Amino acid sequence: MYYVGIDIGSTASKVAVYDENKNEFIDLFMLPTGWSGIETASKIFKTLKEKNINKDNSYFVGTGYGRVAIEYANDTITEITCHAKGTNFLFNNLSGTLIDIGGQDTKIIKIKNGKVDNFIMNDKCSAGTGRFIELMANSLGCSIYDLIEEAEKCESTDINISSTCTVFAETEVISLKSSGKNKEEIAFAIVSSVANKVASLCGKFKDDNYFLTGGLCVFPYLVKALEKSLGGKVITDSKGQYAGAIGAAIIGFDKNK
What we know:
Blueprint lengths: L1 E7 L3 E8 L4 E9 L4 H14 L7 E6 L11 E2 L2 H13 L4 E6 L4 E7 L2 E7 L8 H10 L4 H9 L13 H13 L4 H19 L7 E5 L6 H11 L2 E3 L7 H14 L1
Parallel strand pairs: 1-4, 4-5, 6-9, 9-10
Antiparallel strand pairs: 1-2, 2-3, 6-7, 7-8
Helix pairs in contact: 2-8, 3-5, 3-6, 4-6, 6-7
C-alpha cells in the first residue's frame, strides 16, 4: 500500500507518498494551486496514476485549505494536526515551537512530546505570511528569491515597514521607492518586518528552539533573520515545505497499520 498525503495550500499544493513495503517516503512533489483547488487535485491524481499510485493500492489523506476539493480522499485532517505530525517526523519527537509560514497565514504551534499543545494563527491580511512577502517582491519588480538575495546584501537600515496590513505595507514600499531608497535597504526592511511579525506571534510561546516549515524555509537568510528576532535557534529542513503532506500520509498509515 501507498499512503498519500496531499496538502492543498493557498499558493502551492504538496504531495508526499509513503511506501508501506519500503517503510519510507518514495516521492515528494509540488504543484501551484492556481485558481481552482479541484483542478489542482485532479492534476495531482493524474500525476500519481502515471506512477501507478491509484485508488486500488493507495490511501489518500487531504489537508490544507483546499482539502475539501480532494474528492478521492479517504480522509481529511486539519493542517494544524498534519503539520505537527509531519514536523515531528522530520525532527524526531520534538518539543518546541513550530512556525509554519504559509501563503495566507502563519501558524505558531506549541508542541510537547510530539503532540499539539496549543496554537495561534495570524490574520490573512497581515504581514508575516508568504503572500505578504510575494506582494512586496512584486512591488520591487522582482521574485521572492531576488528580494531575499537583495536583503542579504544590506547589513542594516533605518527604514522600517511599520504597517501590519499588507495593503498599507505595499503603499509604504511604493513610497520608499519613490523617495529613491536603495532596493537592498527596502528588501532588508521587508524581511525584517516578516521576522519581527513572526517573533511577535511567537511571544505567547517563547522558546529556546523553533522549527520552521513552509515554502520560506528554503531561504537560509530568512532563517537567520528569524533567529535574530526570536532570540533562539531556528531549525529547519529542505523537506519542511512538505511537512503538512508528510504528516497527512503518516496519519493515514497509522490509521491503517
